[in-house]
Amino acid sequence: MQEASSDLNIAWRELIYLLLIALAISLGILIAFRYIVSYVIYIVLSGSVVVSIGGTIYLWFAWYQENKAVKTGKIHVDDSSVTPYLIYAILMTIVAVVTILVVLVMRKRIALVVQLFREAGKAVYSMPALLLQPIYTYLLIGLSFVAWAYCVLWIESAGELYKNRKNHLHYKKDAVLVTARWYNLFLYFVMAEFYLGCQHIVVAGAVARWFFTRDKKRLSLPVTRSTCCLLRFHLGTVAFGAMIIGIVRLLRAIVAFIQNRLKGYDNNCVHGILWCCQGCIWCFECCLKFLTRNAYIETAIYGCSFCTGGKKSISCTL
After folding, report:
1. Which of 87, 92, 146, 220 is the most buried (most CB within 10 A)?
2. Does one domain contain both 134 and 211?
3. Which first-to-last residue range defines the signal peptide (predicted)?
4. Residues 282, 293 contacting (CB under 8 angstroms)
């Protein structure tokens, strides 16, 4: 905690500059989506291909140079980065091949993507209040983080004080405090996902109302009406989806905690199993977030439950 606060005290100006630069880039992209969306799409696709190919060439060249330095004796094998460069080069090659194949396969649908982004730009310009939704969301998530950190301080400073063999003082936690520690983390995960889910439903409801209204002049406060609809009908849907994702995130945190506790033990088999578990849970979490977000969209449009919206989103995706 002390190191983090000292780092923030030193680099707060740089962080503010980076935030302002990111804000300027975001506003520039919004303006570009409104007027030159087709050029932006082609630039993004071309840039993705060029960056992936360039990264692949650089990593293979770096691996070749490192391997050559090892063979000539300029670098000792133990001090070299031959294996990491080889792994990164192979992974980057796979990414480049997949990117190129996706661009080639989807090239006939670029016009559809351009039209979708053009409509999205029109929606944002018609409803500028949509731009405030992420600000509200992340302010609430930040407040939840502060509440979580406050509870962490209380939990970690509670318990029976004892002195270990190195004469260091620690607080011994009983089962209630250990449970409270994990329950506090679970609540933070659920609240963060709840606020994000509320944002998805508000945005989806407002955009759907804007898109399906033929006479745009008859629209009256679509974002406000979508928010009222969320508060009246869909809070339970969002809470259910947030709880599911929160459980999965808690499982990832538990696996990471076990990995951290087993760092001192030299057991490659156990470490490999834990890494596989971490990767599988992460993939499952990403898929679950994707399906949940689509279920929220279906709920905002049709007013259905979470499970019904999930079924509709899966059928639309497949």
Report:
1. 92
2. yes
3. none
4. no
- Count of structural domains within the chain: 2
> What DSSP state is assigned to residue 173?
P
Give domain status of residue 58, yes or no: yes
Q: What is the pLDDT of residues 221-244, one digit of tens each?
A: 888 899 999 999 999 999 999 999
Q: Range of 154's domain?
A: 128-318
3-class SS letters over the chain: CHHHHHHHHHHHHHHHHHHHHHHHHHHHHHHHHHHCHHHHHHHHHHHHHHHHHHHHHHHHHHHHHHHHHHHHCCCCHHHCCHHHHHHHHHHHHHHHHHHHHHHHHCHHHHHHHHHHHHHHHHHHHHCHHHHHHHHHHHHHHHHHHHHHHHHHHHHHCCCEEEECCCCCEEEECCHHHHHHHHHHHHHHHHHHHHHHHHHHHHHHHHHHHHHCCCCHHHCCCHHHHHHHHHHHHHHHHHHHHHHHHHHHHHHHHHHHHHHHHCCCCCCHHHHHHHHHHHHHHHHHHHHHHHHHHHHHHHHHHHCCCHHHHHHHHHHHHC
Both 89 and 142 in a single domain?
no
Task: Give the domain-ending residue among 126, 146, 178.
Answer: 126
**pLDDT tens-digit readout, 154-164:** 888 877 777 76
The tokens describing 113, both together, are: 């993507």
Q: Do 78 and 211 fall into the same domain?
A: no
Q: How many helices (H) and strands (E) does the chain have?
A: 10, 2
Comparing C-alpha atoms, which of 201, 226, 207 is closest to residue 309?
201
pLDDT tens sequence across 180-218: 989 999 999 999 999 999 999 999 999 888 888 877 777
Residue 23 located in a structural domain: no
pTM attached to this predicted model? 0.77
Same domain, 118 and 162: no
Residues 204 and 316 both lie in one domain: yes
